[in-house]
Structure formats: C-alpha cells, structure tokens
C-alpha cells in the first residue's frame, strides 16, 4: 500500500520561506506524477504544482515563488516556498498520480503579516 507523509509546514511571516516534504513509501516515486494541492478554509482544494517526466507545472498564483522537485534516492517530493504571502495560508497536500491516486494527510501552512 502506497503511503504519503507530508512534513515541513508551520507558521511564518510574510516574505518567509518553508520547504514541504512528501515521503513516499510502498511505491517508487518515479512511477508517479507528483503533485501539490492546497485547501484554505471554505475553499475547494486547488492545484499548486506538479512534476513528471516532462517537467514541472505551477499555478499562476505561485509561479516564480514555489519550486517542486523530487529525489528518487530518498523517494521524496519537495515543495520549496519562497516569498510567502497571507493568501498562501492553507493545508497543503501531496498526491501521487498513477493507475491509482494517493494522497497524504496534509500539512498546515500559515503566513501572517
């Protein structure tokens, strides 16, 4: 059974940085397209960033500030978040997309001014 565990969330001030990690167990990360989504209170879950063999993809709201990557040696996906804004506050979820899609439990990111 594939499991995803996110970590690295927390509270930061505007302009700060955080790096989220998503450790994949029970499967090989290179077999999946990896994605990051976020959900703010009262909102639907929204796409943030993704990575596959073709490259990386970002929502317009985070392009130029966030960087998604994977490390096949540690079977981990990362989301580096720089220049954080209050509107980035949300629960961030990692997903592995393949013949079956898997989701992590989420990690809270709070950006305060």
Explain this structure to me?
This protein is an all-beta fold. It is 0% helix and 57% strand. It contains no helices and 11 strands. Strands 2, 4, 5, 6, 9, 10 and 11 form a 7-stranded mixed β-sheet that branches. It is globular and about 40 Å long. The termini are far apart.
Compose a concise summary of this entry.
It contains no helices and 11 strands. The chain is mainly beta and 113 residues long.
List descriptors.
single chain; 113 residues; mainly beta; 4-stranded antiparallel β-sheet
Distance between the termini: 41 Å
Largest sheet: 7 strands, mixed
Structural classification = mainly beta
Which shape, going by the Cα principal axes? globular
Strand proportion:
over 45%
User: Rounded to an integer, what's the Rg over CA atoms?
Assistant: 13 Å
- Work out the helix count: 0
Unreliable residue runs: none
Order of helices and strands: EEEEEEEEEEE
Question: Based on DSSP secondary structure assignment, what is the total number of beta strands?
Answer: 11
Please write out the topology.
Elements (H helix, E strand, L loop, with lengths): L2 E5 L2 E4 L4 E8 L7 E7 L6 E7 L2 E4 L7 E6 L4 E6 L8 E8 L3 E3 L3 E6 L1
Parallel strand pairs: 2-11
Antiparallel strand pairs: 1-3, 3-8, 4-5, 4-9, 5-6, 7-8, 9-10, 9-11
